[in-house]
Amino acid sequence: EYAPDKKRGFFGSWLEFGTLAGYIGGAGLVTLMTAFLSTEDLLSWGWRVPFLIAGPMGIIGLYLRMRLEETPAFAAELAKASRKEADRPKVRLRDMVAGQWRALLLCVGLVLVFNVTDYMLLSYMPSYLTSELKYDETHGLLVVLGVMALMMIVQPFAGALTDRIGRRPVIAAGCVGFLALSVPALLLIRQGSLLAVALGMGALGLLLVCFTSAMPAALPALFPTKVRYGSLSIGFNVSVSLFGGTTPLVTTALIGATGNMMMPAYY
Q1: How far is CA 3 from CA 6, 217, 218, in A?
Q2: 31-35, 105-109, 203-207, range with the lowest pLDDT
Q3: What is the pLDDT of residues 186-228, one digit of tens each?
Q4: Are the C-beta atoms of residues 90 and 214 closer than 8 Å to each other?
Q5: For residue 107, is it within any domain?
Q6: Given 3-state DSSP classes, what are the helix, strand and coil percentages for the chain, each rounded to the nearest 5?
Q7: What rounded mean pLDDT belongs to the chain?
Q8: CATH of the domain at 196
Q9: Domains in the chain: how many in total?
Q10: Is residue 88 over pLDDT 60?
Q11: Alpha helices in the chain (DSSP H)
């Protein structure tokens, strides 16, 4: 909401840039600990290190959030009403859900596509490499780190592209790309060599950027200012909980039930 109309894609892309930076920080720390600590050390005390680092960062994040002012769009919405408490616009849960059900369903669908691919590539694939393909754990984490670094580099440019050609074509390109390349990319990954794994993961990572660069600007635009925060929060978190967070579990169950190692691509 702070971004100029013609630069919302570029500004919004930095949200996922920061998310990827956090992923890299966490995955990088785990990679270093896996490489230099024994299994016994990891189980006895090493697992506490990420929490000791995350605690102070959480306090800093809370402080920054408490200092944020309301966005100009929301402030303007409040200014339309009388300053009297009784005249302030009141938003009920029904307004955020039933009143916005079409936009809410679209939000759930877009977040489903975005988060299933995100969780599959960045959360599940490292486990797939080690447990299913017997890939070295450290090498698998390093490949994922490289993919996330590549995504970070491309992210702002892809966000700027959405400002030029629109969010819809970029999201559509990502959907078509995953439909066409998921199976070939996983076949390439299953070759097992470092180059093949890196190329397959890199291709999927670049397709994922189509979503990470466009969604931060596309999703809020689905809802009017009055209900934007509430409706978007409901749609986003319901979709992530039902479909994104369950992706590793569902994929593992599908492989176990069918014995088909290509299930991640089909899913």
Answers
A1: 8, 9, 13
A2: 31-35
A3: 999 998 888 999 999 999 999 999 999 999 999 999 998 888 8
A4: no
A5: yes
A6: 85, 0, 15
A7: 89
A8: 1.20.1250
A9: 1
A10: no
A11: 8-36, 39-41, 48-67, 72-79, 93-97, 101-119, 125-127, 137-165, 167-189, 194-218, 228-239, 247-258, 263-266
